[in-house]
Design brief:
Blueprint (H helix, E strand, L loop, with lengths): L2 E2 L5 E4 L4 E5 L2 E6 L3 E4 L6 E5 L8 E10 L3 E9 L4 E8 L11 E4 L6 E4 L2 E2 L11 E5 L4 E5 L2 E6 L3 E5 L5 E4 L9 E10 L3 E10 L2 E9 L14 E3 L5 E4 L2 E2 L9
Antiparallel strand pairs: 1-2, 2-5, 3-4, 3-11, 5-6, 6-10, 7-8, 8-9, 9-10, 11-12, 13-16, 14-15, 14-22, 16-17, 17-21, 18-19, 19-20, 20-21, 22-23
Length: about 250
Amino acid sequence: MGERQRNRVRVEASQRRIRTYLGGELVAETTSPLLVWEKPYYPVYYFPIADVRSELLTQTGETRRSPSRGEATLFTVATADAKAEGAAYRHIDSPVEQLRDYIAFDWDAMGSWFEEDEEVYVHARDPYTRVDVLQSSRHIEVVVDGVKVADSKSPRLLFETGLPVRYYLSKTDVRMDLLEPTDLHTKCPYKGTASYYDVVIEGNRHENVVWGYPFAAEESQRVAGLVSFYNEKLDIYVDGELETKPKTMFS
């Protein structure tokens, strides 16, 4: 079970097999990682020292300090075909004793990450984050600048821990003539890669307020090919009632 440390760092043991690669070469592999919530939103994988290929790591001579985890020694990771400067770190004298014999890696600096044999994108997966997709008969209407852009009585509702419900609609229930694809793409470890659209009403452009997952991750496959609208930015009516705009990081 996780513990709430006096310095507010949450640490939890896991039995998931975690691997990270750089330049196609295995750098670390463990079946006993720690999940460490350095930030409250999602955890970071920490590897036991014995499960890291130490011959690929070289100290940079630099350190990085965290108010909660203490000073971290930085290491460069170098494989035959790639190098990541300062990409590994160890809190040797951390006030959180559990971390002292573990090494972590900056996610984006590494080439790829795996839980068991499934690749993980964007950041480590939080075991307490759920994604549930439910078929619904609620009446969903989306209005932009006084124009009804979407009208559906068979939406799929996506419930994701920590976020407001998202209404995913069939494109046949959406005025796709008012949507223009953009170059924006984002990745989610639970849903996959999203493509975005602007809504354009008589020359008034609302940028990247609609998105969809052409090829969704396994737990979110029921929304593949559908589109959703930012509750935070647009007027959405649920069974005839205007929904209060939620306050989130996307507001």
